[in-house]
Predict the structure.
Amino acid sequence: MFIFSLLFNVDRSPTLVTSLASVGDGVHDVLGRTLASNEALLHVLMWIIMGLATGVAVGFVAMTRRRKMGNPEVPNDLGTAGLYKSALDEHAIFAVTDARGVIVYVNDKFCQISGYSRDEVVGKDHRLINSGHHPKSFFADLYRTIHAGKVWHGQICNRAKDGSTYWVQTTIVPQTDGQRRPSRFIAIRSDITQQKQAEHALQQATVELRSHVAARSAEVAVSEQRFQALADSVPVGICMTDTAGEFSFVNPMWCQTTGMTQAMLMGTQWQTSLHPSDSVEFLTLHKVCCQHGRDFLFHHRTVAPDGRVAWVETRFVPVRDATGTVAHFVGTLTDLTAIRNAESDLTRLNVDLGNKNREMEQFVYSVSHDLKSPLVTFVGILGRLRGDLAVGRTDRIMDSLGRLDRTSIRMRTTIDELVDLSRIGRVVGESHVVDPARLVEEFAKDHAEHLSAEMITLTVAPDMPLIRADRGRLAQLFDNLLNNAMKFGCSGARREIQVGCDMSDVSAVRYFVRDFGPGIPIKYQEKVFGLFQRLSTTVEGTGVGLSIVQRIAQVHGGRVFVQSQEGHGATFWIEFPIAIHVDCAVEQLAA
């Protein structure tokens, strides 16, 4: 009843009234601070403590004054004060110290929580329950505040008699004397041990959660690094799209295959890499697969920004969540260009093989026919020789021997040309810069007597383009064409052979050998390049020359063809790819 005896002497201690009013304010502040963390509990306590502290300090003083004024409604006993004290003891831990900090009063709540009896506490200071948790600076600030006559608020960890610790929310209000010097300190505390334990448990749980999150984040980071390393190293393009087909991730191989950067492929921009001939069908099927969550597989072409075309296989596979709903798609892009090229090469090789087989069949047939003919001649001449020798016809013997000699020469020439034809393509000479005009000039010089005797004019166009080729084979090509022109194209009134070029096609270099003879009927214009195909039996020849010309052109990546109108001469064209064309200025600079 210590504090309440003070209250009933309020008229003799006006400063105490002020102090107790401050206690009420302090309790209000304590409740206000604690309300945020334990709203349910402190809503109830608000009504009790506000009545106990503020009501005791202010309300009771007013009641006393009204009683002194003779107000009959105010009870003139200590029953109400006893009720207030009982309520305060039920909630608050209450203590009063003198100016030196020596405890002069504690309530039952103080004794219950600290484990000390009132006799063990009164006369001691608060060092009795110091837990050692707070640094010295903490209490230095506390003492400095209250000795300055200010109210101090805070949380303190104390130690009970049994060694356990407990936390209290504390408000200390100094009671000052007439000179405004603290003479007493009133401390009201609330037990917040459970709250602090909950806070500690929450902090511990937060630390553990952060540790777990950090560990999982590290695992995810490692997993992402492994995925990124895998995605960067696989020889297949990988992407991720949403359910609408918009890209959210692509690996470097996808960029390399399509020739586009990651930024260019994000969203729906990747669709610009589709070949125009394939895009409509691709996008139609892809839309259906996205709408229905189906697998997607399509072979198509892509076009890089630089125009490079690639054959690819694109596959999209849906990834579903726990409910079976499609969350996103994972896609792969496999470059099929090398495979397609290999297939194309294989097809071409099969075609070439078929052509060679047909050529071989024709060759075997032609050889068997053309080599049998001289042998038949041999047999006939030998039979004639036997008869002439038997009857002594020596005049006919010399003629038969001459025929044998000419037949053997023709047969040897045919065999040599066949061997030469078989070597073209198998035995490749070294490439050099070749000037076709010079080859024609060399031919004209070697055949000057024949050209003069037959009154044939051979002209060469100026500025013939240079090419890089096997010089010996190219000379053989022009020799065969020029020989053919002299034999078959100079029998008419205009005995002229022209050699020139045509550079109108930017992808090819074309040369021509033109005569003004009887020409070649259209039905024979393709056959003339076959083995042993001879259109004239009146002129000596093996029928192999134009086959050699065709083979030499093919070995250099080119072709040969004839344009002719019967009765108006023939023009043989030799076409080479522009790649073997040599720029004269560049060649001179390099030299």
